[in-house]
């Protein structure tokens, strides 16, 4: 009996040593809201939907200490629909993110797999006071289609932060037979963060050629700045889109401007507002303006309620729609109210 107890104690101690060097976390977001859209061909559309403020997801992430300031990391993250329980991409397992890599405190981070682009991270984290969610999302007028959001087959390198300066470079292999250039995508960003100031410049270039067809390149550049004045946080972004932004999209040539703010209300609330303008440089001159306002209220550290409204004024036959974080929307006006829980 004593030998058995001693053996169990030794095994337990050895297990604790092994697991102390690595950890795996299950995390996610459950977001569901009521959305009412107007001004589209379908008239008024009212629905309960998922991912209004942030996309609902289930993920696994882990890190293992390899010693000497080096760690191995991984993420597997799948999108889900909180309103139906279905996967947001049928047949996929980790459609949002799936990567593995190494992190060095001195040399930086290298990741391989499906990942966000530096352009998208700049738009979400620095440029948009709505963080690309709710009716006011910058996605409604700024380009985020297809591989501008995430890239499969990508290799990224992120430098350590040096006096607030950090850079990132991303290369996505096109994997087209007979060509090393077709379908490849290259992106990068340089950012500065110090106290209340955050600034970043991001660039993305996509080769839309296939093995059989030549297509125009797509180019996106984005300058974003936000500054926290304590009584309010101000946001500004300027974007430039030119060429064919994805394999199936039309050729574009436009400038995009965003100004916005978040204003704290008490210890748990925040008012969000933004104005976004798309200046179309093509002959059709299909410009658009978006006005948006919202409010979020933290019910706890993990749970928040939200409400938002946005309207787009389309010009010269343009038909941009008011969507949210996960849906493009059906009309030029939308109202959201809902609840988000992070775990």
UniProtKB/TrEMBL annotation:
| GO-annotated molecular function | porin activity
InterPro entries from the UniProt entry: Gram-neg_bact_OMP, Gram_neg_porin_domain, Porin_dom_sf, Porin_Gram-ve, Porin_Neis
Q: Which GO terms describe its biological process?
A: monoatomic ion transmembrane transport
Q: How does it sit in the membrane?
A: Multi-pass membrane protein
- In this chain the Porin domain maps to 9-316
Compartment(s) = Cell outer membrane
- What protein is this chain from? Porin
Top-down, what is the taxonomic lineage of the species of origin? Bacteria, Pseudomonadati, Pseudomonadota, Betaproteobacteria, Burkholderiales
């Amino acid at each position: 009996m004593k030998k058995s107890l001693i053996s169990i104690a030794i095994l337990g101690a050895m297990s604790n040593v092994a697991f102390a060097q690595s950890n795996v976390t299950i995390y996610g977001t459950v977001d569901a809201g009521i959305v009412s859209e107007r001004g589209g061909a379908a008239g008024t559309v009212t629905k309960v939907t998922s991912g209004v403020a942030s996309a609902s997801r289930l993920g696994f992430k882990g890190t293992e200490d390899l010693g000497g300031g080096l760690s191995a990391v991984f993420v597997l993250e799948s999108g889900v629909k909180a309103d139906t329980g279905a996967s947001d991409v049928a047949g996929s397992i980790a459609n949002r993110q799936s990567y593995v890599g190494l992190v060095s405190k001195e040399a930086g981070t290298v990741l391989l797999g499906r990942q966000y682009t530096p352009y998208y991270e700049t738009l979400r984290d620095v440029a948009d006071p709505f963080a690309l969610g709710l009716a006011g999302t910058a996605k409604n007028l700024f380009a985020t289609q297809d591989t501008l959001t995430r890239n499969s087959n990508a290799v990224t390198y992120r430098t350590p932060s040096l006096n607030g300066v950090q850079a990132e470079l991303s290369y996505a292999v096109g994997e087209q037979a007979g060509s090393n250039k077709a379908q490849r995508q290259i992106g990068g960003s340089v950012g500065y963060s110090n106290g209340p100031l955050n600034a970043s410049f991001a660039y993305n270039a996509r080769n839309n050629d296939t093995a059989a067809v030549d297509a125009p390149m797509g180019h996106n550049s984005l300058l974003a700045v936000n500054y926290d004045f304590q009584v309010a946080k101000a946001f500004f972004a300027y974007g430039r889109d030119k060429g064919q932004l994805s394999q199936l999209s039309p050729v574009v040539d436009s400038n995009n401007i965003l100004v916005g703010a978040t204003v704290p209300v008490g210890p748990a609330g925040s008012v969000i507002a933004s104005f976004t303008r798309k200046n179309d440089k093509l002959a059709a001159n299909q410009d658009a303006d978006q006005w948006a306002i919202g409010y979020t209220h933290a019910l706890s550290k993990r749970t928040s309620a939200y409400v938002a409204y946005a309207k787009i004024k389309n010009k010269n036959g343009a038909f941009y729609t008011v969507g949210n974080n996960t849906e493009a929307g059906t009309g030029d006006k939308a109202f959201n109210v809902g609840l988000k829980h992070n775990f």
